[in-house]
């Protein structure tokens, strides 16, 4: 029992100390700096009041200590324990990658080395880019299914029941949804690793910053946590066709029926653009969060 509790505390602390996690303290501080700058630049009232009013708006007790936010905190604590218990029973990415690698070997009859003269950094850049794009597309696909299939929506609506949003809302999920996304991650990483290692051998590596995929790091450090917040930062019409802005993800959480089924993308907006579910942000559109009716 004591070992399990220590494992739980380690996993709990890892959520804030690990740069591969969304709520890594460095990302939270970066989001705070971006939010303060956005408020000071966009609000005359905030400019007159300075930093004090900006921080008062950001740390409004009605948001951080609302019934909805308390639900976020409880689910975060509970889901940490659930995933810690379930994880050993899930197929690991290395096991699946090994099986896929053997499958490729059987299919081709021998190991294939593509472009042996290609510099290692080119292979690394290609692997890192492919990994990020495939990971993002799979998140979009699963997210869309969670909305489209009633049996999956029954689980996903837990996340959309949030009526106030904080960075902790990202963990406001049903455990079944957590398992689905964990399995998705295992499959995506196993496919990428096995394929690239089979064709490029030991030249395969990931370009990282603090241990996180360089693209994922850039996504998180530029304010990903503001997607679950009340700070509507827009990227402008052109860029919002390529990247999902915080304001666009806030639209995804809107209780307004006009916004239902919009902006399923995580980082890239091109999937929604191609799939007909893209919705650009508007400055004059206040949003009420939650399930509505």
Question: Which helices and strands, and how do they pair?
Answer:
Layout: H1 2-17, H2 25-42, H3 44-49, H4 51-58, H5 61-64, H6 67-86, H7 93-108, H8 120-148, H9 150-160, H10 175-200, E1 208-209, E2 212-213, H11 214-221, H12 246-252, H13 270-275
Antiparallel strand pairs: 1-2
Explain what you see:
With 293 residues, this protein is an all-alpha fold. It contains 13 helices and two strands. It has helices at 2-17, 25-42, 44-49, 51-58, 61-64, 67-86, 93-108, 120-148, 150-160, 175-200, 214-221, 246-252, 270-275; strands at 208-209, 212-213. It has a two-stranded antiparallel ribbon with strand order 1-2. It is globular, with a radius of gyration of 21 Å.
* Helix/strand order, N-terminal first: HHHHHHHHHHEEHHH
Strand order of the largest sheet: 1-2
Q: In which range does the helix fraction lie?
A: 55-70%
Structural class, by secondary structure, is mainly alpha
Shape type: globular
Average pLDDT level: 90
Specify the number of helices. Answer: 13
* Model regions low in confidence, pLDDT < 50 over at least 5 residues: none
N-to-C span: 43 Å
Q: Tell me the fraction of residues in β-strands, as a range.
A: under 5%
Total DSSP E strands: 2
Describe the oligomeric state of these chains in a short phrase.
single chain
- What is the radius of gyration computed over CA atoms, rounded to a whole number of angstroms? 21 Å
The description of the largest β-sheet is: 2 strands, antiparallel
């Amino acid at each position: 029992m004591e070992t399990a509790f220590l494992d739980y505390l380690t996993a709990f602390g890892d959520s804030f100390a690990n740069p591969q996690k969304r709520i890594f303290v460095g990302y939270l501080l970066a989001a705070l700096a971006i939010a303060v700058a956005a408020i000071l630049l966009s609000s005359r009232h905030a400019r007159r009041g300075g930093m004090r009013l900006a921080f008062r708006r950001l740390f409004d007790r009605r948001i951080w200590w609302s019934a909805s936010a308390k639900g976020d905190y409880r689910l975060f604590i509970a889901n940490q324990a659930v995933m810690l218990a379930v994880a050993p029973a899930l197929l690991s990415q290395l096991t699946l990658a090994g099986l896929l690698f053997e499958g490729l070997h059987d299919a081709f009859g021998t190991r294939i080395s593509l472009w042996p003269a290609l510099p290692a950094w080119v292979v690394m850049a290609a692997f890192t880019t492919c990994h990020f794009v495939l990971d993002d597309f799979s998140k979009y696909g699963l997210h869309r299914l969670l909305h489209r299939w009633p049996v999956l929506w029954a689980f996903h609506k837990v996340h959309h029941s949030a009526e106030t949003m904080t960075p902790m809302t990202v963990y406001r999920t049903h455990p079944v949804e957590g398992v689905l996304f964990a399995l998705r991650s295992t499959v995506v990483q196993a496919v990428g690793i096995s394929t690239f290692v089979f064709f490029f051998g030991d030249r395969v590596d990931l370009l990282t910053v603090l241990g996180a995929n360089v693209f994922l790091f850039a996504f998180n450090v530029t304010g990903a946590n503001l997607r679950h917040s009340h700070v509507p930062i827009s990227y402008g019409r052109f860029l919002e066709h390529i990247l999902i802005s915080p304001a666009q993800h806030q639209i995804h959480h809107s209780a307004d029926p006009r916004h239902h089924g919009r902006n399923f993308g995580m980082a890239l907006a091109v999937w929604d653009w191609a799939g007909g579910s893209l919705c650009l942000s508007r400055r004059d559109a206040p949003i009420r969060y939650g399930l509505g009716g």
